[in-house]
Design goal:
This protein has helices at 40-47, 88-98, 103-116, 132-144, 162-177, 189-195, 213-217, 233-242, 264-269, 286-296; strands spanning 2-11, 14-24, 29-33, 55-60, 63-64, 73-76, 150-154, 181-186, 198-203, 206-211, 224-230, 246-250, 253-258, 276-282. It is of the alpha/beta class. The chain has a 6-stranded mixed beta sheet, with helices on both faces. Helix 2 (88-98) crosses helix 3 and helix 4 (132-144) packs parallel to helix 5 (162-177). It is elongated and about 75 Å long. The structure holds adenosine-5'-triphosphate.
């Protein structure tokens, strides 16, 4: 569905996209994760033909990016692109007109899209009277109204409370079930973990690692991770190292990689003589992979 080859973009002397390659298969949810300034929005703007790359190729549905490919794409930008004094319906009508939908299709699509984002009962409400979560869903509806094949969601849940986030996650799952291809950018690693078939880790305009969560997990030689709370961190590290546990700090959390899973009592026995407040076991998560991959770079 989307193929990006050797993409480069600089602003003056600063290279912000460096030899970027990625592809997204039809029906896939692909998560592009990276810190502020990694190059996510620049990449999206190039895909949407809003910005010209210095070099490289992008095809969408086998067509090179051009004004013609804009109709295949639906984008929900980071900042809501909505007219606050207009109703939900009027906003969708405005964007449907831009995409040239005829009257009949437009009416049908507005109704179906509002239903899809669970806002049918607020069709006549001005945007400014909607909650933040509802406005975010309407922003996604704008991206869907012309039935695009590829939907780009740029940080769709940033700044939302957990319930509004759950609603958007559910909406993304429904879109996937309908076979829509999705490119999702996010800072929220748990969001990428839950929703994405494949994830690309972007730093300084380069993909450092890419794959399904299972594939990315193979980058860390740990079968399991334990988080240990203790006032005797140095002693715990010395002791655990003797037993082959690899110490790491994620934030201020003392963590160890275990090369194979052990029974809890076996784990506890490795810290004999040390006052341990708690031990929590976790599978290797995207957070750990992200930290390792971006720090190594
Ligand atoms: P965020 O998560 O904060 O949105 P991002 O990953 O989307 O970040 P971009 O907005 O693509 O990152 O920015 C990538 C780099 O390009 C940054 O260093 C940014 O400062 C720079 N940049 C973006 N737009 C311009 C511009 N118009 N002129 C100069 N530099 C720019």
């Amino acid at each position: 569905m989307l193929k990006i080859q050797n993409l480069n973009k600089s602003y003056k002397l600063r290279k912000v996209i460096q030899n970027l390659n990625l592809h997204i298969d039809s029906g896939e949810v692909y998560g592009l994760i990276g810190a502020n300034g990694a190059g996510k929005t620049t990449t999206i703007n190039i895909i949407c033909n809003l910005l010209k790359a210095d070099s490289g190729n992008i095809t969408i549905n086998n067509q090179p990016v051009s004004d013609a490919t804009k109709s295949i794409i639906g984008i929900a930008p980071q900042e809501n692109l909505l007219y606050k004094t207009l109703s939900c319906e009027e906003n969708l009508k405005f964007f449907a007109d831009i995409y040239g939908l005829n009257r009949e299709t437009r009416q049908k699509q507005i109704k179906e899209t509002l239903a899809a984002v669970n806002l049918l009962d607020r069709a006549k409400s001005p945007v400014e009277t909607l909650s933040g979560g509802m406005q975010r869903r309407l922003n996604i509806a704008v991206a869907l109204v012309h039935q695009p094949k590829l939907v780009i969601l740029d940080e769709p849940t940033t700044g939302l409370d957990i319930e509004a986030r759950y609603e958007i996650w559910e909406l993304i799952r429904q879109l996937k079930n309908q076979g829509i291809t999705i490119l999702l950018t996010t800072h929220l690693l748990d969001e990428a973990e839950r929703l994405c078939d494949r994830i690309g880790i972007l730093k300084n305009g380069r993909i450092l690692a890419e794959g399904s969560l299972a594939q990315l997990r193979t980058l860390i030689p740990a079968a399991e991770i334990i988080v240990v709370k203790t006032a005797q961190e140095e002693q715990a590290i010395a002791c655990a190292k003797k037993h082959g546990f690899t110490p790491r700090f994620y934030g201020n959390e003392l963590t160890f990689w275990l090369s194979k899973s052990l029974e809890l009592k076996e784990i506890i026995s490795r810290f004999d003589g040390i006052k341990i407040d708690s031990i929590a076991r976790h599978p290797v998560g995207l957070e750990h992979i992200y930290v390792e991959v971006t720090q190594q770079d």
